[in-house]
Amino acid sequence: MRKPRLMTPGPAMVPEDVLLELARPVIHHRSDEAKQVIVEVAEGLKEVFQTKNDVMILTSSGTGAMEAAVVNVVPPGGKAIVLNAGHFAARWAAICKAFGIVAVTVDTEWGQPVDPARVAEALERHPDAVAVYGTLSETSTGTGHPVKEIGEVVAKTDAVFVVDGISGVGAMECRQDEWKIDVLCAGSQKALMLPPGLAFVSVGPKAWAKIDAFESHSYYFSLKAARSKAKEFDTPYTPAHTLILALRAALRRIKDEGVESIWKRHALMSEACQAGVKALGLELFSARPAEGLTAFLVPEGMKDSQIRGKMAERFGVTTVGGQGKIKGKIVRIGHMGYTDELDVISALAALEMALSDLGLDVEPGKAVTAAQQVFLGKGEPVTA
Amino acid sequence: MRKPRLMTPGPAMVPEDVLLELARPVIHHRSDEAKQVIVEVAEGLKEVFQTKNDVMILTSSGTGAMEAAVVNVVPPGGKAIVLNAGHFAARWAAICKAFGIVAVTVDTEWGQPVDPARVAEALERHPDAVAVYGTLSETSTGTGHPVKEIGEVVAKTDAVFVVDGISGVGAMECRQDEWKIDVLCAGSQKALMLPPGLAFVSVGPKAWAKIDAFESHSYYFSLKAARSKAKEFDTPYTPAHTLILALRAALRRIKDEGVESIWKRHALMSEACQAGVKALGLELFSARPAEGLTAFLVPEGMKDSQIRGKMAERFGVTTVGGQGKIKGKIVRIGHMGYTDELDVISALAALEMALSDLGLDVEPGKAVTAAQQVFLGKGEPVTA
C-alpha cells in the first residue's frame, strides 16, 4: 500500500471535508442559496487577500486571472514592465504579446529575487508604462519576491502594480492594501485548498481608473462585467458553483486557523524543509525561497526523474521537477495549504530513503532531524 | 421534507456516482494517471459530438468556449453573421463586438426557429463573412434550430459554421461531421451530467484553415495552443482535473446508454413534457421546441415567480423563468442529462398542483396522464 501524498506546488492536497462538499448535489447558481454562499465567500476572500476590494471569482485556471489582469488594464499598443524571473513571470510577457501590448522585461536570473532598485530604474526609463507585472511566489523556481518593497517603488509612479499571487496567496505573508498591490491574482488549487478550476482577482482604485479609461477587448474575462456582478454577489457567466461551495468550506478552515497563523505555519514548514534538504548536502535552488515550496538542485550524476520516481513509486509522495530552461535540474517539494509538519517530515524521510536507495551517500534521519529541530525550536513548545 | 429536483436547463442534475468522483483526492494534472483519464475522455467526447475532430477541453463556462470560437476564427475587423434568435444567440454578437468584429445579425423572433433560406440570403449579401454563428438549442427560449439544414447552406460558401451546442449536445440529435458544423461548443453542466466548470470546442479542417490564417489576440482561449496540447492528451494550462475525472464517469454512462438512445430519451421526454403542458391549457413558447427543455407562457394574471416559487417551496422542483426581454413571461422546465421519465412526470405533477393551489382552473392529473400516454405509446412497451 502506498498512501498518496500530493506534495506538489499546486495542485495541492484538499481537506477531506472540502472534497465532500464537491460531491453535494448541484444547486442553481442564480438561487438565493447560491448567492448566500457567495456572500460568505466574498468576505473570506477579502481576509485572505488582506484587502477591502471586492475579490472577483473567475471560472478558469490562474492563467485566466492573469489574462484578465493584462487585457483589462493595459490598452493594445500600451506598455507594461514585466519582472521576468521565472517560467510564470514570463507568462506575463507572453500574454502581453498575444494582446499587442509592449512588454519591457526586467530580467532576473531564475532563483534570484527581483531587485526593487531595478524596478525603479525601469520605471524611470519607461514613464509611459501602464503597469508593472510581478510575482509573489514564482512556482517554477520556488522563489519569493520582495513584493512589499516593489509595491513601495511602483506606488510612487503612475503605473499600477499587478501581482501573480497564484502559489503565494494564503501561503505567505501578502497584504494587498498595505503593500500597495493594485491587482492581485490567485488560483484555487494552491494554498486555498481546492481542486483547480477557480481563479480570483482583486482590483484596487488606482487600477480601476486604468480599467475604466478604455474599452478592453475582453468578454469572458471582462473585469468591468465581473465588478458589476460581484456587487450583487453574482458572476457574469455560469460559475463552477460546486467549487465555490467547496471554497466556502476551505475559507471557514482558513478563518478558524487565522490568516496570520497560516502564514507562520508555512514559514515554519518552509524553514524545516530547507533545513532538511541542506542537512543532506543538497543545494537549494532559490536564494530567497518562497514559503509554499522548496526547490533543490539535483545532485551531480542523478536525474530528477530518478529521485521523484523513487519517492512516488515506493512512498506515494508526488513532487515535480523543473520547468522551461531548468527542466531536469531541480526537484520541487510543495508544502502549501492542507499540509502540516508531519507531511514535511514524511516528504523528507521519503527523500532520504530515495537518495539512499539510489546509492547517494546520505545518512537517513538527518533531514528529518533537522526539520524536527526547526519545529521544536520555533513551533509551539511541546512541553508546558 | 422536500427532495431537491433540479429541473433547470443547466445546471442539470448530476448522477450520484459522478458526484462521488468529485470527492476523490486531487491528483497531479501532468501525471500519467491524469493523462490516461484524458485519453479516455477524448474518445468519449468524439462520440458525443459525432466527430473525428479532437474535442478540446477548456476550464471555463460555456461562454469561454464561445469566446474561443470567435476570437480564434474571425480576425479583428472581420465580419461574422450571427443568427440572432435569443438571449444566448445575442451573446455571439456581444462577443464579436467586444473583439472588434463586425456582426451582421439575422434577427428571428424569439421562440421561432431560424429560417435556413434567410441564412443563405445573408451569406449572399455578405460574401466576405468569415463565419456564421448559430445555436443548436437556444436555452433562453427553449427552441431547437434547424442546424442540419443551416449547415448545408453554409457549407456551400467560404464561411464556416459555428454552433453553440451548450444546452443541445448530448440532449438532441447533432452530428458535427455529417451536419457540416465546423466548430461546435458545449458545456459540462447540461446533458453531459456534470457541474459547471468545463467547456468543450471541436474544430474541423475548414475552420482550422481560418484559425491558422492569422495570429489571434487570445492566450487563455488560444485554440492553436489547445490543439497542440490535445494531441498529447494534455491542456495548455492547469485544467479543472476533478471535473475531467467526473467527466470520464459521465461519458462511461453515455457510452453504456448509447448516444442515439440518449437522443431518443430526450425526444420522448420533450414530447411528453409538451403534451403535459398543453393538456393543462398552457401555451408553449417555442414553435420548434428544443429537446432538453420545455418553455411555456405564464397564464394571464399570474407571475412566473408564483408558479416557480410554489413548485420549489412545496415540492422542491427548481425551474427557471425567462431571460432578457421575455423575463417574467415564461417558465422553463429542464429535462436534460440525468433526467428520466418519472422526473418529467414529477415536474408536471408539481406544476399541476402549483397551478391548482394558485387558483387556476386545472384538472390535476391531466398533464401527468398526457405525458404517460406519450411514454406508453412511444417508449418501450410495458407489457411483453
Task: Summarize the structure in words.
Two copies of one chain form a homodimer. Chain A is 42% helix and 15% strand. The first copy, chain A, is an alpha/beta fold and 384 residues long. Chain A folds into two domains: 126 residues, Aspartate Aminotransferase, domain 1 (Alpha-Beta Complex); 241 residues, Type I PLP-dependent aspartate aminotransferase-like (Major domain) (Aspartate Aminotransferase, domain 2, 3-Layer(aba) Sandwich), CATH 3.40.640.10. In chain A, the strands form four sheets. In chain A, strands 2-10-9-8-5-3-4 form a seven-stranded mixed β-sheet, sandwiched between helices. Chain A has a two-stranded parallel sheet with strand order 1-12. In chain A, strands 6-7 form a two-stranded antiparallel sheet. The longest helix of chain A is centred in the C-terminal third of the chain and has 21 residues. Chain A is globular, with a radius of gyration of 21 Å. At the A-B interface, helix 1, helix 3, helix 4 and helix 9 of A face helix 1, helix 3, helix 4 and helix 9 of B.
- Give me the strand/helix succession of chain A: EHHEHEHEHEEEHEEEHHHHEHEEHH
What is the overall silhouette of chain A? globular
- Total of DSSP H or I helical runs spanning 4+ residues of chain A: 13
Under the CATH scheme, the architecture of the largest domain in chain A is 3-Layer(aba) Sandwich
The quaternary structure here is homodimer
Ranges of chain A where pLDDT stays below 50 over 5 or more residues in a row are 379-384
Whole-number average pLDDT of chain A? 96
**Corresponding CATH superfamily of the largest domain in chain A:** Type I PLP-dependent aspartate aminotransferase-like (Major domain)
CATH class of the largest domain in chain A: Alpha Beta
Determine Rg of chain A (CA atoms, Å).
21 Å
What is the count of β-strands of chain A? 13
Biggest protein-protein interface?
A-B, 53 and 53 residues
Q: What's the number of domains of chain A?
A: 2
Beta content of chain A comes to 15-25%
Annotated CATH topology of the largest domain in chain A: Aspartate Aminotransferase, domain 2
Helix content of chain A: 40-55%
Q: What is the spatial order of strands in the main beta sheet of chain A? A: 2-10-9-8-5-3-4
